[in-house]
């Protein structure tokens, strides 16, 4: 997009790795609460577009599927060695949005979508990349049927999150999530997953404990007093989880322990007591988790309410069905994973086969996405914030998401498997070195 990018991108990426304060991304200068940030307070500000284009170069250098649309569709005059006239979209590498600016494209396809209102104050001064350390272990999303919780959701003693957290406190944990990142060094905010890809044998125990989130999902368990959990990157739902310390321990022993692969443990005690035939591969091509935790910070609560209807509309306009409560997790095809009697490698291969059969799992329109509200993600100063999970094991944490950015989230990340540079906080399992089909991005494995 810019001459410095075209001429110096490779050397800049190499020289900036490990640098605490790269020259291309200057440290914020002191400012009053409402003064403009050095790079601008909007995604479309020239300074931001320049940064996002440079980030896209760095991400591509690290084999991470990424959108180059910030460069390819901007209307800021730029200069290439072979196109010195540089006059916006028609002189760019490509036409990311049908030859239009992003604003024009959104208006034509989706109508008028506003940005985030001024009442949701966002931090535009600190670096977004690295602001939320990515988990390399499991993510556990628990049904509660609510969108707000106590300030610390695990302190709700009547909830399953409290019971699971009590079990986790007894487990060793040698891994810590890192925070802080250099926007031009993706290794500081995007990590490799500790888990193998779907279908691959599980060979190395995971030492980092699961990250726990309460969610708005409504349990689809047969017993109305039981809860259910989604487990990532296993891409499965565990139904019929008794809301007790014993039930939480059984869940840990059968599905969450770092010694277990995606298939989990075989059925114990013939399903008696707190043991259950309960684990099934999820039907979703992706899951979007919106932070709505009002008791932690009202900005996330407001932002989630603004993002959700736009997200649903954009997904549906692209032929994607949406599950907002978890109803698609009732009456799933079996047999349950606890009944798969085979070698460990064969059981993992069967989970991978079921994942491969999910509609639109490797891109394009169609299929189904789960959209749920969840408890605190961290970084509410960047509201709206969200997690996006994929069957491939890809995990993204996004921030500074306004309704106006939702079409990009849908079209580029969910449908194509590409990182949107201006929204990325952290990620896990995104790199695809030597991928045979680059068009599938990180949706493939």
From TrEMBL:
Residues 25-36 have a biased composition (Pro residues). InterPro entries: Aim32/Apd1-like, Thioredoxin-like_sf. It comes from Cutaneotrichosporon cavernicola. It holds the Pfam family Suc_Fer-like. Residues 1-45, 169-202 are annotated as: Disordered. This is Sucraseferredoxin-like protein.
């Amino acid at each position: 997009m810019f001459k410095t990018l075209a001429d110096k991108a490779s050397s800049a990426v190499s020289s900036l790795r490990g640098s605490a304060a790269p020259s291309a991304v200057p440290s914020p200068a002191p400012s009053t609460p409402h003064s403009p940030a050095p790079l601008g307070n909007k995604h479309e500000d020239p300074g931001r577009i320049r940064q996002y284009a440079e980030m896209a170069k760095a991400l591509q250098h690290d084999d991470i599927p990424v959108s180059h649309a910030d460069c390819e569709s901007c209307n800021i005059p730029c200069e290439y060695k072979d196109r010195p006239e540089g006059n916006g979209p028609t002189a760019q590498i490509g036409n990311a949005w049908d030859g239009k600016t992003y604003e024009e494209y959104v208006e034509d396809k989706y109508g008028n979508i506003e940005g985030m209102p001024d009442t949701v104050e966002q931090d535009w001064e600190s670096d977004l990349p690295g602001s939320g350390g990515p988990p390399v272990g499991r993510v556990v999303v628990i049904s509660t049927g609510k969108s707000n919780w106590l300030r610390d959701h695990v302190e709700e003693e009547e909830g399953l999150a409290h019971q699971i957290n009590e079990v986790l406190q007894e487990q060793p944990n040698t891994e810590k999530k890192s925070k802080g990142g250099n926007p031009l060094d993706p290794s500081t905010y995007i990590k490799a997953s500790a888990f193998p890809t779907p279908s691959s044998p599980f060979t190395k125990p995971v030492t980092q404990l699961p990250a726990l989130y309460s969610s708005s999902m409504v349990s689809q368990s047969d017993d109305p007093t039981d809860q259910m959990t989604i487990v990532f990157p296993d891409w499965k739902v565990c139904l019929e989880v008794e809301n007790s310390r014993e039930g939480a321990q059984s869940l840990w022993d059968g599905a969450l322990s770092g010694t277990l692969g995606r298939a989990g443990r075989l059925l114990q005690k013939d399903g008696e007591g707190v043991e259950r035939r309960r684990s099934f591969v999820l039907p979703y091509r992706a899951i979007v988790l919106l932070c709505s935790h009002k008791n932690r910070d009202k900005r996330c609560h407001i932002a989630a309410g603004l993002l959700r209807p736009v997200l649903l509309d954009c997904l549906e306009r692209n032929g994607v069905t949406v599950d907002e409560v978890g109803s698609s997790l009732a009456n799933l095809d079996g047999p349950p994973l606890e009944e798969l009697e085979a070698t460990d490698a064969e059981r993992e291969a069967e989970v991978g086969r079921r994942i491969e059969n999910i509609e639109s799992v490797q891109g394009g329109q169609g299929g189904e996405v789960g959209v749920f509200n969840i408890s605190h993600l961290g970084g509410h100063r960047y509201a709206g914030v969200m997690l996006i999970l994929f069957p491939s094991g890809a995990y993204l944490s996004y921030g500074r998401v306004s309704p106006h950015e939702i079409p990009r989230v849908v079209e580029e990340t969910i449908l194509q498997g590409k990182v949107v540079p201006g929204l990325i906080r952290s990620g896990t399992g995104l790199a695809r070195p030597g991928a045979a089909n680059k068009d599938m991005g990180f949706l493939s494995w």
